[in-house]
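Sat 14:20. Reprocessing the chain from the morning session after the first attempt stalled halfway. Input below, unchanged.
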Amino acid sequence: MKKATVSQIRKGTIGLQGMEFRKAKVGYYEEEQINGNDIIVDFSAEIDMEKVCESDDLADTLNYAEAYEIIEKVMSQPAKMIEHVAARIIKALRAAYPNILSLTVTVTKLHPKFHDGAQPVASSRVTLTD
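Finished this time. Tokens:
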């Protein structure tokens, strides 16, 4: 099997897992908007990595510290639905990094509350891919 040289590498994946946002104002019910929920966000982006593989320069890739700050800003905004949160994250990351080829975002709500206040499950989650 022939190994690729650095100059032949075209695509790769970069992301963050387990970003925790405590008491995020995400939830449909009024109590969730007041008290917040614990949310975990994961993202994975496929990007063209040819330039960074040659340059070894942070400016030539997706800076995941900056990506975290973008996601943190999105998470500071109230939302009712985790689907909406995932879509806002995708939109914000794509605006900051137009070189993203594909993007997957998962938003997980820990111990979601049901309409009767019960919390019978460990988590609910949505994954969007763009």
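The CA atoms of residues 80 and 89 lie 14 Å apart.
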